[in-house]
Known about the structure:
This protein is of the alpha/beta class. Helix content is 41%, strand content 17%. It has a 5-stranded parallel β-sheet with strand order 3-2-1-4-5, sandwiched between helices. Helix 6 (150-165) packs across helix 7 (172-211). The two termini are 39 Å apart. It is an enzyme of class 1 (oxidoreductase).
Amino acid sequence: MDHFPIYMKTDGARIALSGGGDAAIAKLRLLVKTQAQLDVFATEPSNAIRDLAQSGKISLHLRDLRFTDIAGAALVYAADEDNVRDQDIRAMAQAQSVPVNIVDNLQDSDFITPAIVDRDPVTIAIGTEGAAPVLARAIKASLEEELPPVLGKLAEIGKSFRSRAFALPAGRARRDFWADYYNHAGPQAYANGGDAGVRDALDTLLIQHLNEEDAAGRIDLIGTGAGEADMLSIRARRAIDRADIVIADHDVSGEILELARREAEFLPASTPATDILDAVREGASIVRLKPGTGTPDALISEALAAGVDCAILPGLPFTQQPTPQLQQGQRS
């Protein structure tokens, strides 16, 4: 990973952009969605850029960007579509330790701007390290079709409710509440009653979850097959995603482990069964990952004997395809 994806706070930040043509307007169409102050420098800006200035979305300066204009900026974009000018801006930015992006020049840029699916405040950034922009746009188009426009509205209302959800215990109880909201109660309430319906639904949902008994812990034994994530069953992927604790053999693939939440606790297979069962009694959701089909082991036997809820989700065994035999007359 040459470029680490992060989300930078733009409220109160200033971004400087040099350029007045197509490359500049392409970047500005995305940047105007942020809360940053946008200073654009161009001697001959396009009509589209003048329109943005007229609407108050950018501050347009009818001159070249200067060294002093970079001071205090969070980011700088060089979009003059002129290699000499872009390199001058790069030198000025680097002299002041301000990250610079040179449009369509990955090698000389300190950062890149990904393709973005915008369901504000939900945003999905898609990057290919500059290797396949067309692929990034194709993924973006696919996600645009799958994610309903109402998703952003649900997230916005949910954000305003977060402090009240703190009444639920941290961890699994809150995750179950929010999963119920985003997957079921929220979309249905919005369809029936709009914003007001969603807020009423959140009040009702919180009361329901506060009155529920603490969820019992469980163990899911998952066979990881040949170690390919896309070969796991949907049920297995969901179990890994909700797990509080992941216990894996050393030869479980990194591709499988990536499916777990970053907040999950990862433990080796040598962890004593007594420790694991104690965590289950405290309500933890645990997955035990084993290569191949996932043969039950001593942990599962002890858990079943203790009355713990267990499920065995077998993986597809790895079977090597036989090498085709050459027919007479064929050449290898």
